[in-house]
TrEMBL record:
Name of the protein in its database record: D-inositol 3-phosphate glycosyltransferase
Domain of life: Bacteria
Molecular function via GO: hexosyltransferase activity
Occurrences of domain Glycosyltransferase subfamily 4-like N-terminal (ranges): 14-175
Glycosyl transferase family domain boundaries: 193-345
GO terms under biological process: carbohydrate derivative biosynthetic process
UniProt key word Glycosyltransferase: yes
Biological classification of the source: Bacteria, Bacillati, Actinomycetota, Actinomycetes, Micrococcales
C-alpha cells in the first residue's frame, strides 16, 4: 500500500498530532508499506522511518507552523501516486491535499483532532464558531472517511453535518509507560526531588496553553501534603506560574522518551485540566503507568476514564469538584493504588500495533470503495 500522509504538524514540533503521525509511520514501515509525508516547513528531518519528508511553505501562529496552500502539494502527490491519502488534523494544508486527491481519484481518510467548538466557546467567538464549523464540514465532507477519536468528537462532527464517520482512537506505548518504571533509578531520583518529605505528587503533562486550562490547578492550593509537578511548556507558562503562586510546584519542562516515562512513574495522581480534548493521549499514558486520573467529564476523557474505577471525573466548569477529587485521592493511598491498577488494565488492548492495524483496515475500506465506485461508472 502506498500512503501519502499530509500533516498540519510534524517534527520538530511535538504534540498529539505529531506523535500519532510518527506511530502510524512506524507501523507502515514495519508492515512493509510505502509512504511519504507532506508537512509545514519548520525544520523537519529529510526522512523518518525510511520515508521521505516533503516540506511546503508555512507561517507561524501561536508558536505553531501553519502550512499554506501550495502548488507543490499536487505535484508531490502526483509524483508519488498514492493508493490513499491520510490527512492528519486537516486545516489549510490538509484541505488542499484532500481536494488534490479528489481530482486524482485517490481516496482519503481525514483524522479529526481539533475541538473547534471548545476553542470558539472559550474565546467567546459565537459567530466565528459557526463559520469554523462550516469550514470543518467542508473539509471533512471532501474526504471519503473521517475518523473521530471519541464519542464526544463524533457527536460534534455529526451535529456539524459531517456524514461519513468512523471511530479511531490512539495507541499507547505499553512498554515505555509501565508501573515497573517506578523502580528505575531515574524515577526514584525524580521522586526524591518531588516528594522530599513524603508528599503526594500530583502531576500534569501537556502543553501549557490557554486551551489546556492548566491554571485550574490553583484549586489545589491549601491541600496539605501535596507536591505539584508540571511537565511541558508553552505560551501560557508565565501566566500559569502566576496563578499557581503559593502552591509547591516543580516545573520539569518538556520531556520525552524515557525521561517522560520516569516522570509519570514519579507521580501518584495524574490531573488532566482541559475540557476541550478530542481524545486525551496523556490520560492513556498515565493509565499505562498505573496512575489514577482526575479529569473533566468532557471530550475524550469521557471514553478513557471510568469514574470511580480508574479515576474520577468532575463537572467541567467546577474547580471545587476538581479540588475534591484530587483531595480524595491524596487522602486514600489504597484507593490510588486500586484505581491505578484498573487504569493499567484498561489500556492493555490499546497498543499502537493494535490501533494502527485498525487504521490500515480503514485505508483498505476506502480504497475498495473507490475501486467499486470506479467500476460502477
Amino acid at each position: 500500500m502506498r500512503v501519502a500522509v499530509v500533516s498540519e504538524s510534524f517534527l520538530p514540533t511535538v504534540n498529539g498530532v505529531t506523535t500519532s503521525v510518527l506511530r502510524v509511520l512506524d507501523h507502515l514501515a514495519e508492515e512493509g508499506h510505502e509512504a511519504i509525508v507532506i508537512c509545514p516547513d519548520a525544520g523537519a528531518p529529510a526522512e523518518y522511518a525510511g520515508f521521505r519528508i516533503h516540506q511546503v511553505p508555512s507561517v507561524a501562529y501561536r508558536q505553531f507552523p501553519v502550512g499554506l496552500p501550495s502548488p507543490q502539494v499536487q505535484r508531490i502527490l502526483a509524483g508519488f501516486g498514492p493508493d490513499v491519502l491520510h490527512a492528519a488534523s486537516p486545516f489549510f494544508l490538509g484541505a488542499q491535499a484532500i481536494a488534490a486527491a479528489n481530482r486524482m481519484g485517490v481516496p482519503s481518510v481525514a483524522i479529526y483532532q481539533t475541538d473547534v467548538a471548545g476553542f470558539a466557546r472559550r474565546n467567546g467567538l459565537g459567530v466565528t464558531s459557526a463559520i469554523a464549523w462550516k469550514y470543518v464540514r467542508w473539509v471533512h465532507e471532501g474526504a471519503d472517511l473521517t475518523l473521530a477519536p471519541s464519542a464526544a468528537s463524533e457527536y460534534d462532527l455529526r451535529t456539524a453535518g459531517v456524514s461519513r464517520i468512523a471511530r479511531w482512537g490512539r495507541g499507547v506505548d505499553l512498554v515505555r509507560y509501565h508501573p515497573n518504571k517506578r523502580r528505575t533509578s531515574a524515577a526514584v531520583a525524580l521522586r526524591e526531588r518531588l516528594s522530599p518529605d513524603g508528599e503526594t505528587v500530583v502531576g500534569y503533562v501537556g502543553r501549557i496553553a490557554p486551551e489546556k486550562q492548566v491554571e485550574r490547578l490553583r484549586a489545589l492550593r491549601g491541600i496539605g501534603g501535596v507536591s505539584l509537578a508540571i511537565v511541558g511548556d508553552g505560551p501560557s507558562r508565565d501566566a500559569v506560574a502566576r496563578e499557581l503562586r503559593g502552591i509547591p510546584v516543580t516545573w520539569l519542562g518538556r520531556l520525552g522518551g524515557e525521561d517522560l516515562a520516569a516522570a509519570y512513574a514519579a507521580f501518584d495522581v495524574f490531573a488532566h485540566t482541559g475540557s476541550e480534548e478530542t481524545f486525551g493521549q496523556t490520560v492513556q499514558e498515565a493509565h499505562a503507568s498505573g496512575l489514577p486520573v482526575v479529569a473533566p467529564r468532557a471530550g475524550g476523557p469521557i471514553d478513557l476514564v471510568e469514574h470511580g474505577v480508574d479515576g474520577l471525573l468532575f463537572r467541567p466548569s467546577d474547580d471545587r469538584a476538581l479540588r475534591a477529587a484530587v483531595a480524595m485521592l491524596v487522602r486514600d493511598g489504597a484507593l490510588r493504588r486500586r484505581m491505578g491498577e484498573a487504569g493499567r488494565r484498561a489500556v492493555l488492548g490499546r497498543s499502537w500495533d493494535v490501533v494502527c492495524g485498525e487504521l490500515t483496515r480503514h485505508y483498505e475500506r476506502v480504497i475498495l470503495g473507490a475501486v467499486a465506485a470506479t467500476a460502477v461508472r
